[in-house]
Write a structure and sequence with these properties.
2 helices, about 240 residues, single chain, 22 strands, six-stranded antiparallel beta sheet, mainly beta
Length: about 240
């Protein structure tokens, strides 16, 4: 399991396992990791973990969040990354993520590009693509185990409801499908033994599920659910 090690002036203050999908960090005591220092905002940042990969997101903090001495808004964490919050540092440790490069035996991540959905092209999605490909490998393992036990999840698709590609259907056959515009809004749909789940991955703009903003945690999808990403509406359908 991944963890972060909190230090101040090279003195270890604590180790925190990333055992939830969302870990909040800030000065207030209701955070999962509290850093009681005036340079730290009440709710400074959060770490979102999907299976074996984690993303850190700054929550509009006053003094910002740095990763490896560079300011970030949202960043896909790599084993050994050092997060700086005020004078405190959090070292991200996840040796499994380093070793979990997907092999040819696993289903590859299917990334629905912006131009396939009537969205403008954008750069900057490489790190997200690399990160979700590792997640895809982990999901594929679970799917293979489920199929071996005759518990394979249903097949499903997304039907685009508006825009230039209205009526087009996108099969959700891969372990992980990412949708959206890198740098603006990226949403992931994971195919798990328990069914299909949707989660916000990147960007300050929050995708909608049935007209409501997605929360911090992955949400299960049901037949007929409407997902909206960068203004494109899609209907989830099982088969």
């Amino acid at each position: 399991m991944a963890k972060v090690v909190l230090t101040l002036d090279e003195r270890v203050l604590g180790e925190y396992p990333l055992n939830k999908e969302c870990i909040t960090i800030g000065r207030r005591p209701d955070n999962d990791i509290q850093i009681d220092n005036l340079a730290v905002s009440g709710q400074h940042c959060q770490i979102i973990t999907i299976l074996n990969d984690s993303f850190i997101e700054d929550l509009n903090s006053t003094n910002g969040t740095l990763v490896n001495d560079k300011p970030i808004r949202k960043h896909a964490l790599v084993n050994g990354d050092v997060i700086t919050i005020g004078k405190h540092q959090l070292k991200y440790i996840n040796e499994l993520a380093t070793a979990a490069a997907p092999s040819d035996d696993f289903e590859k991540t299917m990334v629905i590009r912006p131009d396939q959905m009537g969205m403008p092209e954008s750069e900057g999605g490489q790190k997200v693509d690399e990160s979700v490909s590792r997640i895809s490998a982990e999901l594929s393992k679970s799917l293979q185990e489920a199929e071996a036990a005759s518990q394979a999840p249903q097949k499903a698709c997304l039907r685009i409801l508006n825009g230039s590609n209205a009526g087009k259907e996108l099969e959700l056959t891969k372990a992980l499908t990412t949708i959206g515009k890198p740098g603006t809004q990226v949403t992931a749909i994971s195919r798990r033994p328990q069914g299909f789940f949707v989660m916000h991955v990147e960007g300050s703009a929050i995708p909608l599920l049935n007209g409501e903003p997605l929360g911090k945690h992955a949400q299960p999808l049901s037949d007929g659910d409407i997902i909206e990403v960068t203004g494109i509406k899609m209907e989830f359908s099982t088969r």
